[in-house]
Amino acid sequence: MIFIDNGSSVNVLFKSTLDRMKVEGFEFEPVSIPLYGFAEHFIPPLGQIVLPLSLENDPQRVTKMITFMVVDIPSLYNGILRWPAFKDFRAVASTYHQKLKFPVGK
Predict the structure, then answer these.
(1) Residue-level pLDDT at 106
(2) Cβ distance 53 to 78 under 8 Å?
(3) What domain count does the chain have?
């Protein structure tokens, strides 16, 4: 489950999720920018990684390459998707309907 956060400044992937995914062929890029807002203090990211993210199922599936900051803290979610990623998918989020709408090409 991914949390959709219109106010977040970065896409976040939690290390526990990345470990479960057993991702191969992708590398961390070092990051020196601390993240705030998870706790009372800053969280140092382990790095960032660019991964394909797919929304929906075939034939409506849309896949884009998204940059995630990886953090090693506990979470109820697998990741956090921020508003600029919505632009990549041309998506609109409705908190009232708890839906994410986006064009699928046809």
Answers:
(1) 62
(2) no
(3) 1
Segment 63-75 shows an average pLDDT of 91
CA 37 to chain centre: 16
CATH number at 43 reads: 2.40.70.10
Predicted confidence (pLDDT) per residue in 10-42, tens digit: 899 999 999 999 887 788 899 988 888 766 778
Distance of alpha carbon 60 from alpha carbon 69, whole angstroms = 27
pTM over 0.85: no
* Domain-located, residue 77: yes
Tell me if 38 sits within 8 A of 96, measured CB to CB.
no
State the average pLDDT over residues 61-89. 87
Domain membership of residue 20 (yes or no) is: yes
Could you tell me which residues come within 8 angstroms of residue 71 by beta carbon, excluding any fewer than 6 positions away? 12, 13, 14, 15, 35, 38, 43, 45, 46
Query: Which residue is associated with the tokens 């526990």?
Result: 16
In a domain, 106, yes or no: no
Range of the domain at 91: 2-101
